[in-house]
Write a structure and sequence with these properties.
globular; binds 2-OXO-4-methylpentanoic acid; 356 residues; D-amino Acid Aminotransferase, Chain A, domain 1; eight-stranded mixed beta sheet; alpha+beta; 23% helix; D-amino Acid Aminotransferase, Chain A, domain 2; 2 domains
């Protein structure tokens, strides 16, 4: 394994004083990880350096053709003082899935995990300790080769930055209002909707902007072909509790395979609940709301953890879910996941890794 060179900052930054006011993605720690890729040389020169702007040529291909992928994960400071990562190997496997789809050279997942641990150790004093806070880890890879021409880049940069964060949504665990998007689509099968590519998020901005103007927190995307099956929220996967079944859209190439989604499914099944990964249409959702079988709806994601959905607007119809309150299952999933992440609940699944 290559050695990671560490250059410590001579000017550590002032840390945010009030951990209640961290917000999400506002503050960045003192250091970042960098590693270059060059054709013929492969991935090389792994290093931890002071967090600073990156200098790129205006012709760098990431600016023109969007060859960029990222990941999102967190380090948690446990109640026992230990630093834990949650299923990081899953994020790194997904990073390579995204890399493959965007013709980005694959990374060595075991090495990338060591890089994350080394960076987290270097900036360990930035990990917030207040309940509900964590250190968000953002690995990303982008094309740096200067060339105005469309082809897989021959030079790229792998970067990891860290950000102490609170809740992703200002609502916290309070139910969010979601707008079902019927005009724009995020992705279609065969596209890159299953990857964590920046372009997928750029494609979501227009609809998000319009939803925000109408007072909704997020957009719920429908499939791009029939415009009737529920896909994901863009920042989260979604679950619906209908009768005694928990339904989540199946992964068919246009939806991100969330690690929190996967963990929720595994938890729900371990509690003896029936989970169906299948196509779920808006018509079925509206019918379940009308006949009283729709009990809960919630989103799942690394940033958001579990976000109960209190209201959904689809065309002219507005439905309230679970009386607009936090559902029992949403609360149980949130408590269990965060309990495992903060070392308060026994990790019987072996999902966490302690950073020593
Ligand atoms: C995450 O949940 O980690 C994400 O990358 C979503 C992003 C919008 C913050």
């Amino acid at each position: 394994m290559q050695a990671i060179d560490i250059t410590r900052t001579a000017a550590p930054k002032q840390k945010p004083v009030d951990q209640n006011q961290l917000g999400f993605g506002v503050y960045y720690t003192d250091h970042m990880f960098l590693m270059n890729y060059d054709a013929g040389e492969g991935w090389h020169n792994p290093r931890i350096v002071p967090y600073a702007p990156i200098s790129l040529e205006p012709a760098a291909m990431c600016f023109h053709y969007g060859q960029e992928v990222f990941e999102g994960m967190k380090a948690y400071c446990g109640t026992d003082g230990k630093i834990r990562l949650f299923r990081p190997e899953q994020n790194l496997a997904r990073l390579n899935l995204s890399n493959d789809r965007l013709c980005i050279p694959l990374i060595d997942e075991a090495f990338a995990l060591e890089a994350i641990k080394a960076l987290v150790r270097t900036d360990a004093d930035w990990i917030p300790t207040l309940d509900g806070t964590s250190l968000y880890i953002r690995p990303f890879i982008f094309a740096t080769e200067p060339h105005v021409g469309v082809h897989p880049a021959r030079s790229l940069l792998f970067c990891i930055i860290l950000s102490p964060v609170g809740a992703y949504y200002p609502e916290g665990l309070d139910p969010v209002k979601i707008y079902v998007e019927t005009q724009y689509v995020r992705s279609v099968r065969g596209g890159m909707g299953f990857t964590k590519a920046g372009g997928n998020y750029a494609a979501s901005l227009k609809a998000q902007d319009e939803a925000t103007k109408q007072g909704f927190s997020q957009v719920l995307w429908l499939d791009g072909i029939e415009r009737k099956y529920i896909e994901e929220v863009g920042t989260m996967n979604v679950f619906f509790v209908v009768g005694d079944e928990v339904i989540t859209p199946s992964l068919q190439g246009s939806i991100l395979g969330g690690i929190t989604r996967k963990s929720c499914i595994e938890l729900l099944k371990s509690w003896g609940l029936r989970v169906a990964e299948r196509q779920f249409s808006v018509d079925e959702l509206l019918a379940a709301s009308k006949n009283g079988t729709l009990k809960e709806a919630f989103g799942s994601g690394t940033a958001a953890v579990i976000s109960p959905i209190g209201q959904l607007k689809c065309g002219d119809e507005v439905i309230t879910v679970g009386g607009g309150k936090i559902g029992a299952l949403s609360q149980r999933l949130y408590d269990t996941l965060t309990g495992i992440q903060w070392g308060k609940t026994e990790d019987t699944f072996g999902w966490t890794i302690v950073v020593e």
